[in-house]
């Protein structure tokens, strides 16, 4: 994965929004992330130019392309597993969400896989 953290966040947000709605537009991403429309427009332009997303010119609907979806799914999985790990050790849900959001972009794959394995093994014992 050779992308800046902000690009990963945009792709993850598009993936999460697309789970709950048929059409995802730039304004939806802006609202979800708390960023301005111009910032989102620039980011969407860059993601489109680099082949991560497509944008329907008529509807404004944003779709993840294969390489964008791959990155979004990796980051989203990390987010969910890290949130569970942090909550499992007593971190409040809101803090766990917030911290997972930061950790998901810098954690090594080796450490993430070990945490994921640990969570899977221990969640079946509850």
Strand order of the largest sheet: 1-2
SSE order, as H and E? HHHEEHHH
Low-confidence stretches: none
Count every beta strand, where a strand is a DSSP E run of 2 or more residues: 2
Radius of gyration: 16 Å
Tell me the strand percentage band: under 5%
Major β-sheet, in short? Answer: 2 strands, antiparallel
Mean pLDDT: 91
CATH superfamily of the largest domain: Winged helix-like DNA-binding domain superfamily/Winged helix DNA-binding domain
Could you give a short description of this structure?
The protein has six helices and two strands, in the order H-H-H-E-E-H-H-H. With 126 residues, it is mainly α.
What does this molecule look like?
With 126 residues, the chain is mainly alpha-helical. A two-stranded antiparallel sheet has the order 1-2. The chain has helices spanning 5-20, 26-33, 37-49, 66-88, 93-103, 109-123, and strands spanning 53-55, 62-64. The mean pLDDT is 91. Strand 1 and strand 2 (62-64) form a beta hairpin. The protein folds into two domains: 5-70, Orthogonal Bundle (Arc Repressor Mutant, subunit A), CATH 1.10.10; 74-123, Diphtheria Toxin Repressor, domain 2. The protein is built from six helices and two strands, in the order H-H-H-E-E-H-H-H.
How are the elements arranged and paired?
Blueprint: H1 5-20, H2 26-33, H3 37-49, E1 53-55, E2 62-64, H4 66-88, H5 93-103, H6 109-123
Antiparallel strand pairs: 1-2
Quickly list its features.
2 domains, two-stranded antiparallel ribbon, mainly alpha, 5% strand, 126 residues, Diphtheria Toxin Repressor, domain 2, Arc Repressor Mutant, subunit A, 6 helices, single chain, 2 strands, 68% helix
């Amino acid at each position: 994965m050779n992308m800046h953290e902000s690009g990963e966040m945009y792709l993850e947000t598009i993936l999460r929004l697309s789970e709950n709605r048929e059409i995802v537009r730039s304004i939806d991403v802006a609202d979800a992330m708390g960023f301005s429309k111009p910032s989102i427009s620039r980011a969407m332009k860059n993601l489109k130019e680099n082949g991560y997303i497509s944008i329907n010119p008529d509807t404004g609907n944003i779709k993840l392309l294969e390489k964008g979806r791959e990155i979004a799914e990796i980051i989203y999985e990390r987010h969910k597993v890290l949130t569970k790990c942090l909550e499992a050790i007593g971190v409040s849900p809101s803090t766990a969400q917030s911290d997972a959001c930061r950790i998901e972009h810098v954690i090594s794959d080796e450490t993430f896989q070990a945490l994921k394995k640990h969570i899977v093994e221990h969640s079946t014992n509850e």
